[in-house]
From TrEMBL:
Residues 1-21 form the signal peptide. PANTHER family: INNER MEMBRANE PROTEIN YBBJ. GO terms for biological process: proteolysis. It is found in: Membrane. GO terms for molecular function: peptidase activity. Pfam families: NfeD (PF01957), NfeD1b_N (PF25145), NfeD_membrane (PF24961). This is Membrane-bound serine protease (ClpP class). It comes from Acetoanaerobium noterae.
Length: 427
């Protein structure tokens, strides 16, 4: 009986060491679509989860044309500091920001007929290119890859004999990357990668993006953020040229709010940018209700533009975004002014009835005795402003020309409570 119990105890001690029930946990993280703050949140969260659960491998399956440099840099940092071994699998393409993410992993594999390269930054200024190139080179050196190859992917001025000529960006095919020892192998599937890394009985944990990640990625993507900024400007202009608070104001609030929200969530800026923006709007409103174009108007415009610069990834990016938005806004507003009066909706923008004497409209304040009198401009007339006649401050509108402050003008006619004037000759 004692012998049977001894044998049974020995068997129990051996069973835990048997490998038939063991498995290697692998986290599969997809790097697909645009690289942006939404992807950063998704990658960061799953790398942290894999580290906390002592996974055996994190595999990044890459298929991207790139995206934001700031997001790619932060994703790279998360991969580099991971305690769990990492591998990237370029399955079709890894361009631009995708190059940095791919070379950040411990191992780099490529699927047949895939490519990696074409990592020129946009906008390609000297400062941006220098920083981006050094980031690529440093990461390549950390992972034992040729830094000159990744530099040539970003800088078209770099020539490599028998590989890439001047004014061309390096883009490596699967076979070329393996030939140059840039990749660690060509694999047809993820399973082949696991076998190459010595993993067996793999338990894949396929990660999924949360709804919040998708929303953040959507509003912070380069195209959508540009559209939101344009929407904000269009709504602002429409609100200014229409009476009362209406649809234009609503569009402006939505556009600017989502634009700044995307920047804050992505870490590109802080709430201070919103404070500067709101201050700019307030200063513009003060300027509208005060005669003349002065310090409030200039400060208001500076505040709005400055806040957009703070909310952008770089000054060059901000200038480009503002320029595109203002151009599109100008075109849209011009089309509104040209075509909207032909529709019933034009009544919200334009007064359809002429309030003139011929139609029986006469202002109770109309005083024709001012016709022919001279006056002094108290403010700039652009074309409306204030004038002084015998110590009385009156509303005036110029004949069409811009008239500076402290100029002598002559009253031509009376239009309701406003006097139509022109600058006196010789003054």
């Amino acid at each position: 009986m004692k012998r049977i119990l001894l044998i049974f105890a020995l068997m129990l001690s051996i069973i835990p060491s048997l490998s038939f029930g063991a498995s290697d946990n692998v986290y599969v993280i997809e790097i697909s679509g645009e690289v942006n703050p939404g992807m950063l949140n998704y990658v960061r969260e799953n790398i942290e989860d894999a580290n906390n659960k002592n996974a055996d491998l994190i595999l990044f399956e890459v298929d991207t044309l790139g995206g934001r440099i700031d997001s790619a840099e932060k994703i790279s940092q998360e991969i580099l500091k991971s305690k769990v071994k990492t591998a990237s699998y370029v399955n079709t393409k890894a361009e631009s920001a995708g190059v940095l993410i791919s070379i950040s992993a411990n191992s780099l594999y490529m699927a047949p007929a895939s490519t990696i390269g074409s990592a020129e930054p946009i906008p390609n200024t000297e400062k941006t290119l220098s920083y981006w190139k050094s980031l690529l080179e440093t990461t390549a050196e950390k992972r034992g890859r040729d830094p000159k190859l990744v530099a040539a992917m970003a800088d078209s001025s770099i020539e490599i004999d028998n590989l890439v000529g001047k004014d061309k960006l390096l883009n490596l095919t699967t076979n070329k990357a393996k030939e140059l020892n840039f990749s660690d192998g060509t694999m047809n599937s993820r399973q082949e990668i696991y076998e190459d890394l010595g993993l067996s009985a793999v338990n894949e944990i396929i990660t999924m993006r949360k709804l919040s990640d998708n929303i953040i990625g959507f509003i912070s993507s380069s195209l959508i953020s540009q559209l939101l900024l344009t929407l904000g400007f269009v709504g602002l202009v429409v609100e200014v040229i229409t009476p009362g608070f209406g649809f234009g104001g609503f569009l402006s609030i939505v556009g600017f709010s989502l634009f700044f929200a995307g920047s804050i969530i992505s870490g590109s800026t802080t709430s201070f940018a919103i404070i500067v923006f709101l201050l700019g709007i307030i200063l513009l409103l003060v300027e509208i209700f005060m005669p003349g174009f002065g310090i409030f108007g200039i400060a208001g415009i500076a505040g709005i533009l400055g806040s957009i610069v703070m909310a952008s990834t770089s000054v060059n990016q901000a200038i480009m975004s503002i320029g595109i938005s203002l151009l599109i806004t100008t075109i849209i507003v011009a089309l509104i002014i040209k075509y909207l009066p032909k529709r019933n909706l034009s009544k919200t923008l334009f007064l359809g009835t002429n309030l003139d004497k011929e139609n029986g409209f006469v202002s109770s304040k109309e005083d024709t005795s001012y016709i022919g009198m001279t006056a002094k401009t108290l403010t700039y007339l652009r074309p409306s402003g204030k004038i002084d006649i015998d110590g009385k401050m009156l509303d005036a509108i110029s004949e069409g020309r811009y008239i500076e402050k402290d100029k002598i003008v002559v009253v031509l006619s009376v239009e309701g409570s406003r006097l139509k004037v022109k600058e006196k000759e010789g003054e």
